[in-house]
Structures
1.
Amino acid sequence: MFPISGNNWPVVALALAIGLFLFVFLILPVVTVVFVAFQDPNTGSFTLINFVDFFNNSLFQESSLNSVYVAFMAVVVATIISLPLAYFTTRFNFRGAILIQTLGIVPLIMPPFVGAVAMLLLFGENGSVNLLLSEWLGITIPFMEGLNGVILVEAIHYFPFILINLSAALLNIDRAMEESAQNLGASGIRLFRRIVFPLAMPGYVAGASLVFLKVFDDLATPLLLNINNMLAPQAYLRITSIGISDPMGYVISVILVAFSLFSLWVSFLALKNKDYSTLQKGGGGLMRRDLKPWELVGCYFVIIFILFLVLSPHIGLALLSFGTIWSFSVFPDAFTLAHYADMFSSAGQYIWNTLLYAGLAALIDVILGIAIAYLVWRTGLVGRKWLDYVSMGAVAIPGVVLGIGYLRTFVEFNVPIVDKPLASWWVIIVIALAIRRLPYALRACVAALQQVSVTLEEAAENLGATKSRTVRRIVVPLMTGGILAGFITSFATAAVELSTTIMLVSAESDAPLAFGIYEYMQSAAGRGPGAALGIVAVLIVGIAAYISHLVINRTEKQRTSSGIRIAEQVGAT
Amino acid sequence: MGSRFFKPLLVTFGSAVIISILLLPLQTFAAGKLVIVTSYPPDTTVTVGKAFTKATGIKVEMLKKKTTAGIKYLQATAKNNTSDMFWASAPDAFEVLKGDDLLQKYTVKVTGIPKKVGAFPINDPEGYYKGFAASGYGIMWNTRYLKAKKLPVPNSWAELERPVYHGHVGMSAPSRSGTTHLTVETLLQGKGWKDGWAMWKNIAGNFKTVTARSFGVPDGVNSGQFGVGIVIDFFGLSSKASGFPVDFVYPKVTTLVPANIAIVKNAPNPKSAAAFIEFLLSPGGQEVLLDPKIRRLPVNPKTYAKAPKGFPNPFEDASIGSAVKFDLQLSKSRYNVINSLFDVMITYRLDDLRAAVKAIQAAEAKQKGKSNAAASKLIAEARALVSMVPINEAKASENSFNKIFKKKRKKKKDKSTGRQAEFEQAWDTQIKANYAKAKGLAEKAASM
């Protein structure tokens, strides 16, 4: 694709190192587990019969359809939520933009299963909203009935993926493009359709494909809402309840991986042969205009409605954490601080562990993300695309499968100094989180890199800069917005991850926050303290993201490149 | 890489790494802690753990796993075991571990614990695991929910079959929860294979949901998502003690089974583990079980003197848990088949089952008081179709048949014929058709 300079051994070495890491911590554990899918349950020999069983089974057919339907609808709903938010903030001058950027990312930093608990209390059949509706109007709306509930919870939880990537893409569009189009007579819908939307396409597709994949293999939400007829829950239920002699769980895992790889491939195809990069980085972002008063009112109305909807899990959780008893009523019976007192005795360890694990994992992720994005899009290395495919494949590995794979693969490998099996050393949790969240950082880095024109690098190299210097001084700074978005997404979602950690936590003192919340939520008296811990988790992740934004902002204050503006906009959490 | 960008991050997380590496020796040093793998919530583990540490000075590390996940964890880590004890409810789980040779025999020194609770022996006759509390299964309900929906208070399984509860009942699946499995098995043993399944399907026809976690049921009742739940006693009793507007009752056909604790084979701290068992069974330890957050039935009859008023006492009230003589061997012989049958017929076909049962209930309501023989015949046919089970009782316990559903092949050369997925698909096709046909018949009967 691009000319390779003759001396490219560092590139090869880098690719090999990343390849080895991915092989040991992603491919190997998954293969040990997936192996079972191709094993005859009776004889242990190689077979494809399990796949025949899968496709003949009406329950699995139904589950597949449900999974695709839910993932697709979640993308639709998430797009409906994020489109106005992204558009308003990048298009108009108004103060609500800060509100959106700040609060729009908050849904990500809550474990989805906790969100589902809160959503049930608010929107369930006998939740607050429906109790009020039936009292006032005598009707109830099935927000949370069956698949609706999964779609709603998932869309609200994952829409920030689209919002972040779409906003970053919109902000990164060269103003000159829009001006040229306007000079040539385009405006309104036509301008949006022909210029703005196509230029923002990489960002949108990156976000939408992430949402699709995430929802497709999300386990905790359907489980918590007691939806069994979807692929990921079927895989989980099979693996945990029937066990190794029944290979269907593993077959489903293989199908999940295959399907996800397929949809990624489709999204690659959709973007192929199109150059979305813009050359000049002088005037980043679309033109902004002031709103007329009535427009302003309309904007605020839409935004407040959407924010209320997407923040409802947090509102519900806050009510739960301050409420005494909340049962079949619109609001809790009374309010108390007792749950916080209960929770604080044990929270310190959870908080520290979470910061450590998620921070390290996100750091590993952005470094790998930049490296892989660069290798894939800027070098001609043979098989480079596989680094991308394999890393993205991680998104399709159910956390439970990865967890079981790690337990199996690493239990007999003793780490020298600590003298513990690797499978029960806390570092394994960090690696698992890094692997699980790598796709987020990678997508963000790829989208950012795609918007950096290769001609800028060529110019730098023509002026005598070495390859690594070019990457350091030109590519990475121009990618800052995307990198930061990737870091925050990885960090925030790793901090609330549960499905893998639940398998890998081998001692209470190693447990992160989400694990603690889950534990609390498993008893009648623990619901309040669990919710209080959830609120703490949201605050922690929010504050951590905000601090990292401030720190980066201060170090780079002198610089005036558009990267900073992007960082400010995207990172303002 | 971009040093200016990464510097602050590197400083932050670099220092985090250094601090944690400095802390590592401390963590390794504290490895003498007693490590207990348990399925119990922190309310139980923290309360008991604190009391134990206070009494003995030994520090405890609780490792929370769902029962099934706990078994898998112990199996996976057996070669390099770091756990001392396994502490959970379902005796079946301990049987599995015992079968895999993962438990250590232990003889208890504490006296005053009877041999049986209800009709069930408290300790493993072979001495591998010990009962420390008794648990029975029953019905809990949300009083506000029942009042708002004008539902009567249920107190027997048969009542849950009534049309008035349609869409108001919740339960977990036996494949998901060891305690739920015991409930299903108890009713099958108490009512017989055919009537037992018929009753489960009629009750399931009134289900609002089948939860994936056993705690999902009390959670749903507590928050009012559904009004009535089929749960293990301490879920109901502790929810009530936590202040939720709920109540709990033991129906006549229930069984009391012991909740257990065992020492894991090759435990790093066997002495501390023994001390924990002795503490749990001592008067002091038994009393902790009465804590409002725990509310389990102690196995020491004397402890009940300290229980709150109205607390069920199986050693005095003979009606609790004695109606069924629970056969553990029978249960063990068909464990996985029962799970699979329940999932195929109820969990995954809940919508079809509900539709069929609803149609039958509607037809019965319509024909009530009339003497339309043809309609009654159709309804009876529909009921028979709904309650049909694809295999008979003898087949369910057949050893060669069970092997197909067995958790794992013990040795590489073990062989069995037929695949679980194959059977389940065949059952599913039949069940789906039956439910659809039953619905059709009932609708026809209603229109007569």
2.
Amino acid sequence: MKKSYKIEVDCANCANKMEEAAKKTAGVADASVNFMALKMKVEFEEGADVDKVMKDVLANCKKVEDDCEIFL
Amino acid sequence: MIRVETMNKKQKKNLIRIIITSVILVGLHFVPAKGLVRFGLYLIPYLIIGYDILIKAFKGIKNRQAFDESLLMAIATIGAIALALYSSGDYVEAIAVMLFYQVGEWFQSYAVGRSRKSISDLMDIAPDYANIEGEDGELEEVDPDDVEIGTVIVVKPGEKVPIDGVVVEGHSSLDTAALTGESLPRDVVEGSEVISGCINLNGLIKVRTTKEFGESTASKVLELIEDAGSRKSKSENFITKFARVYTPIVVYAAIGLAIVPPLVSMAFGLNANWGSWIYRALTFLIVSCPCALVISIPLSFFAGLGAASKKGVLVKGSNYMETLSNTRTVVFDKTGTLTKGSFTVTAVHPEELDEEELLHMAAHVERYSSHPIAQSLRDAYAHEKDDCSVENIEEVAGHGIKATINGKTVCVGNSKMMESIGADWKPCHHVGTIIHVAIDGRYEGHIVISDVPKEGSKEAIASLKKNGIRQTVMLTGDSKEVADHVGSELGLDIIKSQLLPQDKVSEVERMLDDRDSEKEILAFVGDGINDAPVLSRADIGIAMGGLGSDAAIEAADVVLMDDDPRKIVTAIRISRKCLRIVKENIWFAIGVKVLVLILGALGFANMWAAIFADVGVTVIAVINAIRCMKI
């Protein structure tokens, strides 16, 4: 399953770091951050609990870039 | 230009911090304080401009992000302040590093915000409401998402059509510029299809919706543009990978630079000169931020995609932009792509009657037929609905139509029909479908009907060649005679005719196999509905979008919204410009950074040079990237 989220982040490199962090989160099959459109596309693994996974994604993103937000 | 009202809250706040810090720095220049007092005074502007960076740096340590940009910047500036405290007392340099870093961040944020805004304005096609007429005749504004298929909505002059549908009442002109880049308005009457995103210019129209809002053209197009940036180009992937290794390498080099040379000097019994080497190491940290590179690449593509959409060309991803710029061969479908795909009367050859009269008779006979040929004959004779008597219309299958007009029997059809009634027909040297006309059994001449090239086709082929396209090819299912005629008129290099749809695929595959290198990109241009397999097989598929044809939007990588083949050249030129700017930025940014690193290591570049390599390069690269928006 794929979902798209609006995000808030200031720099392009931070957006790349968020993408990395999201990709590494358990339950995420693939993720892509579009800095210019401020959107994050997440492809979830089969049977993943979307709400829970996204909370982890946000927590992981906050670790690499404190000043970021994902609108869940 | 920079305008205060276009800034967001954060940008305003940071701009104020930048100004205050600059003023204090200038003021402190005239304060003759020494020692710790001086240190304390200079700490004020440093904290004003740098407090958020210091907080983020602290969080970076907590989260074990060794290569966090803020952390590196904090180390560099605190290090510089410590060195100044220890020796020279020149704190300005350290504060300037922080100040200019913030200026760079601010500028970047402002520029990105502005280009986001200008592109979303450009794509301001998504309507926010639909009008529904209530029982009392009052109009009610509703969320277009809630409008069901088959609902009649009202579009007032000046409003956008919110949902695709068919006009059931009224007539008007629609401005389709936001979707097609075409500036001429399109007239719609009862029964015309309208697509969402067009602006109703003058009359009030009622539209019966045929799609849901989410499936309507405007929503689809918007989604496409927003998603385009997610399909990343090779240059973007390269930069992301580069950034990932660049920062750690520079940081380790900085550590090495701070420790190794002094230790080596000491081993040889020389002065270790710690201060000077640490200073050089700090300049490294300032240059270690990959921001200029990372921001300028997606920004360039974003601007390029925006520029293309403005011209009515939808490119579905940055990666296609890259491919498009390397196009060497363009393969065209004929019908609907290079030609109009509809029949037009191209010649009238009467025996004794005048041309008008021959068309007049033929049009009458075809009065009630829905065949495309009948349509084209009626179009060619504008006054068909006159008071002539038209009776006994009879269709002769495989031959044509006959009717009694003003008492005379008129036969309109092919040569078989002429033979069957014993009229002495004559062949024609023109290429196309020949319609013979006989009146009361006597041959009166023929009318030639053919599919004509689109207005821009010839120009498109010529300017493709001028723009470095090596080969233009036309593939068609049509007869050799027609194909060769159209092909040579338009100036195509290779013409292949009488192909079945699967033959087109194998022709394209053969061309892909025969080329010298994978880098010589082959583009296929088709009208999208029947060409889907070829569109997906070619390196890049360009579809004639024909105002919202779903199949085309799905199958292709690039969609020409107004079906104008000249837009292929526009698209290729935009992509080339965009790629050139991307390359310029990559080389410029990496070049300056490496140069400053080398000079810094040798002791020739001070912190000011490092600031330029970071902030200056970012600003220049961003300004360069924005050029992609202008064509």
3.
Amino acid sequence: MSVAALRGWTPSIAKPSVLPGFGLTFGFAVSYLSLIVLIPLAVLVWRASALGIDGIWRVATTPRVLAALQVSFFISAAAALVNVVFGAIVAWVLVRYDFPGKRIFDAAVDLPFALPTAVAGIALASLYATNGWIGALFAPWGIKIAFTPLGIFIALVFIGLPFVVRTVQPVLQDFEREVEEASATLGAGRGQTVFRVVLPALVPALLTGGALAFARAVGEYGSVIFIAGNMPFVSEIAPLLIVTRLEEFDYAGASAIATVMLVISFAALLAINSIQAFSRRRFGHA
Amino acid sequence: MPDGVFGEGRLVRWTLIALAVGFLVLFLVLPLLAVFTEALRRGAEAFFASFDDADTQAAIRLTLLVAAIAVPLNLVFGLSAAWAIAKFEFPGKSVLISLIDLPFSVSPVVSGLVYVLLFGAKGLLGPLVDDWDFKIIFAVPGIVLATIFVTFPFIAREVIPLMQEQGTADEEAALTLGASGFRTFLTVTLPNVRWALLYGVLLCNARAMGEFGAVSVVSGHIRGLTNTMPLQVEILYNEYNFVAAFAVASLLAGLALVTLGAKSLLEWRHGDALFPARRH
């Protein structure tokens, strides 16, 4: 009787269902999530909170940390902006036009997701060094790209490239051509139709893609350190400074910088969610 | 497409194509070409000689080992999470879904840092780990943990939306016909999501083998012991051993190309089975 009673009793927070296995799968998923992700992140927050807000502030505003955060923040924003402009053009061309090799270029857009960042880093460094294929073109003009902030910019454009293309592409695909035709019939020129009818509908996707590219760029490490030169106050990014602090066994300093970066990326995430919520209300798609 | 009001003129069209292709060649094709050119700069013999090195071979073995642990674990997690989320209704479901994506918004360096804070010499559990004479940080377990962390969402996020889309009718039918829960999962649910599963595994594996930042923080860079392939690339490069660095890098680039090829093939052949919501 007790066995039957036990079987009948399901210690479940789920609504009753004929399907079995909720307790097992839910329990495993939540335990694994907690052990691998939540508890370790909580330890970081706990470490940082030991410093207190003013402690974190003090670390974050020391000149070297502030400089690194500024380098990371501003160059990531610039790279995201370039990706918004070119990502829109690439998405437009891939969705609307036919040209030889289109399929291959479409598949290639995901390369920055698939190529290990260290490989991208050394490849970009060798291309943009003064004796590299591209660096050599600029060297006679006295423009150095690798081992300057410009090199960081190049790496961050590379790493953020797929985000805008892949968020804009599906929206553009679903965009109804009838709307454009209506606009044309009502007397709008092609330029007016594109910029006043199509583009506004793409704005949420462009912003989302840009924010995703920015969030990724702020945290990026592998592809940047090879091409950056890593000079404190000039071309040192925040993630590299975390590594430096760790190598000096300054755990508190590393945690403080990491916390500031977490806040930045969560702010970006929050912005993305609000954009998508707005877009669902306004256009009926994310 | 007629020129003028309904579409762009020839000139505009080809200017845009040229801009897009130029941008992609500059940022995607050239770096890829550079990897293979630099690897073969001193000829095929020097390229193959790069793999004669014991440390490089150890790095390749370690990378394979780490992926062989991390990918199956994340696969089991992805399936468990998808089963619980897609087949049942419970409070807090959307929170759980967003928590699964959390590792994507964390810098790789921070992903490594959290484990150092937990298990490192001055970490929270450091003394405990020391007492057991077990090494996590600057050892293989730390590398595996950091890799699991950064590849955590890949499989789950492909399978969850698909299983949600498919609902529970198939499974209910199987159960009604007398199949056990496990048999239903194996013969009904799993075949329904197999392409999405493969898709997620491909992406998860590529990232697991290529992860640099998180692994770099926890590895300690001990030659022949805790260097994965990306870390070996860094070491060789910093020693100005460019041919060897790019030779190892070309293996990883080859993996990336195979991943992209397989991914495109899956999207092309099984797109409907992968993203039902995205198609009509």
